[in-house]
Amino acid sequence: MKIARIATVPFFLYNHLREQIAATAAAGNEVVLISSGGEETQWLKQIPAIRFQQIDIPRKISPLRDLRALWQLFLFFRRERFDIVHSTTPKAGMLCAIAGCFARVPIRLHTFTGQPWVEMRGMIRSVAKAGDRLTARFNTLCYADSFSQRDFIIAEGVCDEKKIRVPGSGSLAGVDLSRFNPEVWAATKQSTLDELKIPAGSKVVTFIGRLTRDKGLAELMEAFGAVLQSGQKCVLLLVGPEDSDDGSLTSRAAARSDENIRYTGYSAQPERYLAVTDIFCLPSYREGFGNVIIEAAAMGVPSVGTDIVGLRDSIADGETGVLVPPKNAAALADAIMSLLADDGRRRAMGEKARARAIAQFDARKVSAAVLAEYQSLRAGTRVT
Q: Which residues lie below 8 Å from residue 22, measured CB to CB, with a gap of 6+?
């Protein structure tokens, strides 16, 4: 099969999908990756047996650039004659669905990984939601990376229930258990603690992701302040890039001024920091699944997350972690403190989290489920 995988930015393809892309190519398929430019394109080109095509796909609404991207995608799809085009990220999804339909690509797929419009208001919410409806309308089939997200998308009238499903147990690409393995990183723990200048005896609460408002950073900072006031000896570790679209974020500045906060920036090896983590925290306002939760789980780390679409699937509440109401710093602080204060409960949750990650979210199983979808759809292909 000839397959195109498309995302708005190369960061997404490389950081979330490279193992699945490599598995697809290794199965004998011709794979072409499409995204805007960026430093990660050089890494994408190193994935064995794939081609990369750069097409400028703007993240924000930009009518002229959007039309140019739509036209370039249409021409490229028509020339390459793909069997399958499979998009992720909102703007790439909408443009690829329309371009693929008019180029008569037989199988057009999109994976929803969360809805940005959940936190929007007014006209901009309506426009963004309409974009997702167009994505669903012009595609052959859509996927959600969690069951709660699938139900939400159907309930919101974005996609008909017959046109959206969840491969396997969910998640976008699963977790690479050879990377996220606590035994692999056991020998490096002390050097990492020394590098971060974490005092002996301190517990580590970690956040990994884009430093942006929608990830609940404001509530996390407030909750962590309450944890410190309670007398807990702990450090907050922030790992991830700042979001240039979120000018209100001050987490990095706070990290520089607070002796109990460490900021690392983006890391290509988040597993190194998870190896020294006692609790992972993701107080997000919106998620599709929250893949970083199962990466933490694979490292034997329990999570505290918000009770929202997506995280309800990645965290088994009371077993592998704790769910709290979104935008509630007090509840977040209570959950963190309760786990910090009970070593036995925290370790038991971590063990269950790792067992669940191995049983349900092994990247090899998720990749196999996606390949099975491709083969099944190809067997009954028709242009729609």
A: 47, 48, 50
State how far the Cα of 25 lies from the Cα of 7, in Å rounded to an integer.
17
For residues 128 and 160, the answer to whether their CB atoms sit within 8 Å is no
Q: Which residues contact 41 (CB under 8 A, 6 or more apart)?
A: 10, 35, 52, 54
pLDDT of residue 184: 95
Distance (Å) of CA 71 to CA 63, 76, 226: 12, 9, 53
Secondary structure class of 280 (helix, strand, coil): strand
Report the pLDDT value the prediction gives residue 244, as an integer from 0 to 100. Answer: 58
In sequence order, the 6+-apart residues with CB closer than 8 A to the CB of 228 are 234, 260
For residue 67, the one-letter residue type is L
Position 248 scores a pLDDT of: 45
Burial state string for 153-191 with b = 16 or more CB within 10 A and e = fewer than 16: bbeeebbeeeebebbbbbbbbbbbbebbbbeebeeeeee
Rg of the chain, C-alpha, whole Å: 21
- Domains of the chain plus CATH, in order, are 2-173+363-379 (3.40.50.2000), 182-360 (3.40.50.2000)
- Partnered with residue 282 across adjacent β-strands are 305
What is the rounded CA–CA span in Å between residue 54 and residue 150? 30
Crossing angle of helices 63-80 and 90-102, rounded to 10°: 50
What confidence score (pLDDT) does residue 257 get?
55
Cβ proximity of 327 and 310 under 8 Å: no
Helix 329-340 and helix 217-229, axial crossing angle in degrees, nearest 10:
50
Mean pLDDT, contiguous 10-residue spans, the chain (384 residues): 96 91 95 92 87 92 92 98 96 96 97 90 90 96 96 96 93 94 95 94 95 92 94 94 59 62 91 97 94 97 97 97 97 97 96 97 94 92 52
For 48, 138, 282, the CA distances from 325, given in Å and listed in that order, are 43, 35, 12
The residue whose two tokens read 């196999």 is 368
- CA dist 225 and 236 (Å) reads 10
pLDDT for 30: 97
Strands 107-112 and 30-35: unpaired
Closest CA to 237 of 279, 286, 175, 191: 279
Q: Which of 79, 114, 116 is nearest to 99 (CA)?
A: 79
